[in-house]
Amino acid sequence: MTPTKPTCPFWRAFAKNEGGSAIPLVALTIVVATAMAAFAVDLSYVYRTQSQLLTVAEAAALAAASKLPDETDALDLALEYAGLNLESARFTGAVEAADVRFGSWDQSTATFTEDSSGEAVEVTASLTGQKGNAIPSFLGVVLGRDQFDVSTTAIATTSPGSPACITALDPNGSKALWLDSNAEIQVNGCEIVVNSNHGRALYAESNSAILDAERVCVVGGTFTSENSTINPAPENGCPPVVDPFAHLTEPLYGGCDYNNLTFEEENTTLSPGVYCGGLRIRSNSNVTFNPGIYIIKNGKLVIEQNSTASGVGVGFFLTGGSGRLEFTSNAIVDFTAPSSGPLEGVVFFQDRNYGGTHKIESNNVSDLLGAIYLPEGNLELNSNGAISPMGGCTRIIAHRILFEQNSTLNLDADFSQCPGGGSSSSGGGSMVRLRR
Fold this sequence. Notes:
Largest sheet: 8 strands, parallel, barrel
Mean pLDDT: 83
Structural class: alpha/beta
Low-confidence stretches: 1-18, 423-427
Number of strands: 34
Shape: globular
Strand content: 35-45%
Distance between the termini: 67 Å
């Protein structure tokens, strides 16, 4: 078969090769394609940088808002957190003192106004030619552009009132706070906060699950079966809150003081130190903890049935891949957090580098004064597990929280009772939220 020639005049010009007339067109096409590719590379880099700057601005704004209305301390903390989140010298000067402004936030108009109200903080992170730190162009010089300006702003506000009794930190998971059948949360004088943006971030199962609080604030959505009750009705679409203990630094510690320590049917007193391989208090034991910080490394803190563990001014730091809490049926847990130092107001703090699941099965966690802080861990209250502290200072901050069948939390919140007096260093004070 004899091939036919294209009839389009454009292609006929190539077929005839009329004096090399296609060469300029090809050259122009190559130049345009190269310029567009160069611009795409630079634009991608600009977007990545802007995303990084937004993280910097948000971290600085949230940290600063936690210190309001003290603008001096707030400014210092904003600059400190901006520095901690700047990945390299190329971000030098991204956030300076002049980039931090204080004022008020109008929710109805979503506007920030600079004033002396001490309610909000605005942080701008920028790399610009005016500052002398603009982003250099890699290939954009092809288009005659040798640098780019990038700027982003974050605003954080404080909300008067008590902190949340329960905060689920998971930013996007389903069932970040889950109440199974007949589970019950009854808290007076404090909020419930679910930071997940999932459509079923808060999930209340059938058969009479109950959640009763001063306020229920969910970033995403709520699923409630027809037989469950949430009071008041959850506010879906809330802005996320900052981790109330994001400022908390991990305690310093050395080598192992104890290894694979286990007690069974014993009465004893323990001292602060590094407990490698975990610490197991088995049945029918009575263990008193002297004041101080206990490092539970590469193992669980286990309190088993019919045993009692108690102490005033004690805090536990759980680290290593198997660092967990496990309180079995009928274990009696009676701890008061330190009133000063690195774990002020916190009874249990899990290393942020580890997750896993912590289990409370006991119905005798009746006097726990302080916070349970598991930023990457999941907390399960198993069947019949109960937290009903005599004082109003218990708080749960975890990645995900599950109340299984028949488990309960009953609390009359009074954070002035907290060790440290409910100060900002112990996670007290106002709620802090980003505004977008």
